[in-house]
Amino acid sequence: MSNFPLCIIFAFLAFNLASVIGAENKPPPTPNADTTRHAFFVFGDSLVDNGNNNFLATTARADSPPYGIDYPSHRPTGRFSNGLNLPDAIGEHIGAGPILPFLDPALTGQNLLNGANFASAGIGILNDTGIQFVNVIRMPNQLDDFETYQGRLIDLIGAEKTKKLINEALFLITCGGNDFVNNYFLIPNSLRSLQYKIPDYVPFIISEYEKILTRLYELGARKVLVTGTGPLGCVPASLAKHSMQGECAADLQQAAGLFNPQLVNMVSSLNEKIGNHVFITVETNLVSLNFINNPKAFGFKTSQEACCGQGPYNGLGLCTPLSNICQDRSAYVFWDAYHPSERANRLIAQEIFNGTKYMKPMNLSTLMVMDYNIA
Ligand SMILES: *[C@@H]1O[C@H](CO)[C@@H](O)[C@H](O)[C@H]1NC(C)=O
Ligand SMILES: *[C@@H]1O[C@H](CO)[C@@H](O)[C@H](O)[C@H]1NC(C)=O
Ligand SMILES: *[C@@H]1O[C@H](CO)[C@@H](O)[C@H](O)[C@H]1NC(C)=O
């Protein structure tokens, strides 16, 4: 947050812009009365927020150009991407209708049947993660919102059909990265870093994450993709701040390296407790490391430089209308200092559906055809 004043100024600018363009930044959702289609529910942080923060007075937002430049509307929507984000790239393949942010006033009537997105940029597993962004929807509140949503759906289609829709739906939850980037490592001697060494902090946040997943299960979720953190030390923001010669930042890589395997273990023992494969982990860290170690093999020009930004690796500050913007956005793994480009998101989605290496205990194609007893 070396550019905090800029961040604040920009946020006010963005907030005003949002009120002008907010209403027309999404294509109109298709009403969908077919309840046999899969609904899709999304929880988490900026990697999966599709516009909830547009409705909040927060500095964590992506609602001004050039965000959304490759989105079908070519307008910013609140997604932290040049185009589609990961939930969009997954949603395209599961026959879910377009899902709206929970805070979008259009999330009523038939639109409720498609599911909803509860994610909020800036949040983490811990309540004290992202406090610098002021108003964000923390995990416990995202789950409260999901309960509110269920109440509305019950009013529309009744309790029994609601339970069925929720039980059969696909869920995606993505959080944890900010507990390092926007909490532990945010400033030297952060409160959490004084309280815990990294090898103790990781099990602590994993145990808090288990409580979140357990509540999601209690609220009816039965098919849940849980992504690990990305390669935190290799994102352009980390390279810009810590890297001498393009090497990934060691402390953040160590953190991700501890977090992801412990997440896999926690999820696997949670599934055992439940007695079913409710939670599926996606080792996004390793999927993305493939592009990062060998970008050319995936048709990328670079995995180090962000497409939109400024400073070394285009990794400093925010992506704004004044930033450097690359010509060929599909040649970049990273759109901005932290977030993958649309093309990288599509490749991660492919891995989620059809991959064999990074999906535990099964990939999404397999999960979607499984018809286990979901009661
Ligand atoms: C986070 O906040 C919620 C209430 O919003 C509370 O129930 C929960 O215990 C808090 N978590 C921690 C670890 O303090
Ligand atoms: C997964 O593989 C199937 C069969 O090859 C293909 O039709 C489908 O498009 C793939 N899905 C994704 C998301 O790549
Ligand atoms: C992943 O998906 C493919 C189909 O696209 C399937 O053949 C394969 O067995 C699956 N792998 C696992 C580990 O589930």
Automatic annotation (TrEMBL):
Keyword line: Hydrolase, Lipid degradation, Lipid metabolism, Signal
Leader peptide range in chain numbering: 1-22
Entries under CDD domains matching the protein: SGNH_plant_lipase_like
GO biological process: lipid catabolic process
Pfam family, one: Lipase_GDSL
Source taxon at top rank: Eukaryota
Family affiliation: Belongs to the 'GDSL' lipolytic enzyme family.
Name of the protein this chain belongs to: Uncharacterized protein
Organism expressing this protein natively: Tagetes erecta (African marigold)
